[in-house]
Write a structure and sequence with these properties.
412 residues; alpha/beta; FAD/NAD(P)-binding domain; 14 helices; binds flavin-adenine dinucleotide
Length: 412
């Protein structure tokens, strides 16, 4: 059996490393080698939760095990007069490491272990057909930009036809970590969200400031202009916006030191959330399966895309270990539906947070601010999408969740 994997993001690399560990024959294709992955602007600002970190341990990856990379606490503030605010310690710390470093290190490790990698930009369906001549299954883990035409959008699972947020952000000096240390999310009603996790990058420990703007709202003037031309002006305008809308974040910023770590460390864009059909026929008897963003793209508001990509890569590796083939339509359809059971709560929860404020979310945030047990239980669910979805999907689920959380005895 031979598997071709296109893409060296977290989905492709976790799958390739997992198959390599089991001695299965796989070849990884991507245009970018480790040095290319390390260079260029950031493409995301990823926080990995404990489940992803546990999978890394299973893969024998230990580079970010040390507590210096930990983000143990989550702080949530609704930035409005009298808005709820709470903080909670995650059951196990998350970790936020610049993906330019992370992915380059994973690819190097894969090569060190003797993994097959071919530097190749796979150019559309024609090229996928060529890979199908060499491999019994082609897994497309090429992210949201390329090769997605092969997998038609699934309208029943894709409520958005445009980006619900416009994004701009960067890596900054001059922001004090929150106390206790970790990640902060500032929700600004009608405007969007600002995320500010502590982040480990080429410049050591810095802070991400990522603005998620509701299109046409008060943050739009910042997100709708290309900021790469003038990074200093960007920092100044961002500070002005934080001062006006997110005072709890402003309180952590030293104005004189607030600056992008490097001009290149700036990200701008938007994500149209989409679920595609998870598989495609390439020839009479060869198929492609999509994983990660190539299959399901989520807005980063809930910090789930890379965590989901890793979870799906592991699930697919297990399926491949358990099936010698053939990797036909039945296999692809069945595996894709099983993986959908993993992905669905992430998609539903993320879409709920992107929509107009649901009344149960207001109830939930107020209850978390009021009772540490609720805050703890809510924050613990950031790494448990099924449980999170049960808790937020409707007023009854939220009421039940709050009641259960309040029934837990506080530890003395
Ligand atoms: C601002 C921002 C913040 C985010 N924050 C978080 C977070 O906190 N937590 C979280 O879990 N997720 C987060 N995400 C989402 C996360 O970044 C993605 O879900 C995740 O990185 C997707 O991984 P992937 O491997 O599926 O795809 P990608 O990371 O897109 O990897 C695709 C790979 O395929 C290669 N490739 C592409 N096309 C081709 C081709 N034609 N031929 C060969 N190779 C190709 C690319 O070079 C790349 O190496 C965030 C996203 C953004 C934009």
């Amino acid at each position: 059996m031979s598997i071709g994997i296109v893409g060296t993001g977290i989905s492709g690399l976790h799958l390739a490393l997992g198959l390599r560990q089991s001695g299965l024959d796989a070849t990884l294709y991507s245009a970018q080698g480790p040095d290319d992955l390390r260079g260029g602007p950031p493409l995301n600002f990823v926080t990995r939760f404990a489940s992803t970190r546990a999978r890394e341990r299973e893969l024998g990856l230990s580079a970010w095990e040390s507590s210096e990379f930990d983000n143990p606490w989550m702080h949530v503030t609704v930035e409005a007069p009298g808005g709820p605010s709470f903080r909670a310690r995650l059951p196990e710390p998350a970790s936020s490491v610049d993906f330019r470093i992370y992915l380059a290190a994973l690819l190097e490790e894969y090569l060190r272990r003797g993994g097959n990698w071919i530097r190749r930009q796979v150019a559309g369906r024609g090229d996928l057909l060529r890979l199908a001549e060499r491999h019994e299954l082609v897994v497309v883990a090429a992210g949201r930009g390329a090769l997605t035409d092969t997998f038609p959008r699934d309208p029943a699972r894709s409520p958005h036809d445009r980006a619900p947020r416009h994004l701009v952000g960067g890596l900054f000096h001059g922001v004090r970590p929150p106390d206790p240390p970790g990640m902060t999310m500032h929700m600004v009603p009608g405007a969007g969200e600002i995320h500010a996790p502590t982040y480990h990058s080429m410049d050591g420990r810095v802070t991400v400031v990522l603005v998620e703007a509701v299109p046409g709202g008060p943050f739009a003037e910042l997100t709708d202009r290309d900021q790469r031309e003038d990074p200093d002006r960007f920092a100044k305008e961002l500070l002005g916006l934080i001062t006006a809308y997110a005072p709890t974040l402003r309180a952590r910023i030293d104005e004189r030191a607030f600056a992008l770590t490097r001009p290149v460390d700036l990200l701008r864009g938007s994500v149209v959330p989409v679920v595609r059909r998870g598989w495609a026929r390439l020839t009479d008897d060869r198929f492609a399966l999509a994983v990660g963003d190539a299959w399901i793209t989520n807005d980063p508001i809930t910090a789930q895309g890379a965590n989901l990509g890793s979870a799906l890569a592991f699930q697919l590796a297990d399926e491949l270990r358990g099936t010698p083939g053939p990797y036909d339509e039945t296999f692809c359809r069945t595996v894709s539906e099983r993986m959908w059971a993993t992905a669905q709560p992430v998609v539903d929860w993320t879409n709920l947070f992107l929509g107009p404020p649901a009344p149960q979310l207001g109830t939930l945030l107020a209850a978390a601010a009021d009772d540490q047990r609720v805050a703890d239980a809510f924050v613990a669910r950031l790494d448990r999408p099924h449980a999170m979805w049960r808790c937020v999907r409707g007023p009854d689920g939220t009421a039940e969740f709050i009641e259960e959380a309040r029934a837990v005895r506080s530890t003395p």
